[in-house]
Amino acid sequence: MNNRLASVVVISMLVLLLALIDRLTPYRYDDEVNLDERLLPPSPKHLLGTDSLGRDVLTRLLHGFRLSLALSLLSIALSAAVGSLIGISSALSKPIQIVVDPLFSFLYVVPSVIVAAVIAFTVGFGLHVVAIAIALRLLPVFYRIVRTVALTVAVQPYIEAARAMGASLLHIVLHYIGREAMRTVAVLSIYSFPEALSMEISLSFIGLGVQPPTPSIGGMLAEGVRYVAVAPHIILPPAVVVFATILVLDVVGEEIEKYRRERTLI
Amino acid sequence: MPFLRAAGKKILIYTLLFLIIVAFLHVSARLIPGDPITVIYGEIAEDAAARYALERRLGLDKPVYMQLLMYIGNILSGNWGKSIYTGESVISLISRGFISSLKLALLSTVLVLAICSLLLYAEFVHSLSSRALQVATSLLSSMPTAMWGAVLILLLTWFKQPVIVGSILPPLIVLTIVGAGLLYKVFRSALEYSYQQPFVETYVMMGYSRRYIFLRALGYSVPTILSAVMYRAGLIIAGAIVAETMFMYPGMGFIFYTALSSRDYPVLIGWGVAVSVTLICINLAVDLLHSVIDPRVAGSEQ
Predict the structure, then answer these.
(1) Contact B133, B68 (CB under 8 A)
(2) Nearest-by-Cβ selection for A242 from B147, B235, B242
């Protein structure tokens, strides 16, 4: 119960903090270049110091963190939605399965960096590259699990009963298969969060993700590596934020799983 | 000859897959904004006659399937083009990076295997608390590589150790930390499955030592572990981009990073080809090794 309360408190504080960034800090995050104040160590004026262009590290960190979280959430939602849709249709129709199965097995083994590079060079660099690359990485996982769930549900006696009572295919998909699949998808989404966040950070770190001057955790880590000898204060904050976030996500994921199990027992 | 036939079939499938990937890379290289002549030769090719000459030289006046065949022929004969920036031939650049990455992958794999076996030995034979180990390793693996790299760099700066450019040690440490966390999970579940097998019960009843049983159970889970380990090694050879870039280790990942930041298309495409060959070969090797080690796998495919 303690962990559960803590999870709720931490998450609501986080949401509040990220919603109020613009009120909390007097600095802008992208175009406020001030070369006289570059690489300054932490001080009362800049609580976490300044970066190589004299921008406030704390402001950039908060904005980058918000963007990283939003991108992870967006791509998980995207791949959960598309994956469930394709997963259910593939469970119900053999031809779809024959087309989709090998495609997703292939997608599963291709390193996401290659996927991201192909998207970036054909469509152009930007936020969409990260979102699509992460979504494509998670898609096969969602697809497979939803498909398995749909296959197990489809042969249950109550489906047969529903069909005998004249329920349409749409009704069965929405009310029985869909509902069961949603439960699994919810848990899987939370477990995918650390992976999505890690991928966002890696892609932005190597320059395939969020493009400067927009701040991102990965981009700040990359800059921190470049200036670590003269300004170690740039690399520390993003590293700490990542560590803490994934720690919290681990605990929250476990709590949600426990909560779900208690609910289903009743 | 059932094994040879199965192997031949797999090699055929993977060769086909390779050709599809090369075709895909070729087509996506064409989708890059700007035509290849301008991309490769820049503004020199403004003159229409020069353009035409260049197009003929590159074979761009031929139909697409001919171009694709020529491209595949070039790749097979080792003619991968030249880097736009350094002028070095792509194949020598890539092979140098490949050897560095291979070294990194082999060392890291050996270290990860050793660490995981020791941890599991402590856990299963000497009843070390598994809960603590599980929490620690899941933390190790769920943190992104970039974060561990940042921590290592901070530690090095703290102790006034210079980061030696091209040194294998820092990326090795980072990759081993993350790899040990990831593979420990796989190792553990494979080993737990082995411990549920009836033969373990028989050994227990026959009074064999815990160490002997551990080794036997480990042997039973080798096929499962092997494919996970080899797949990860393949990914490292293909390019541990973040770890190599952070410490400027001159492997495949660093090549990709530098080519990406300078938009060096011939190198990028060469990298894509090399990486797909590597991953396909690793997958093939895993499949074949698996059927050699575990006869049941080979048998099930008849």
Answers:
(1) no
(2) B147
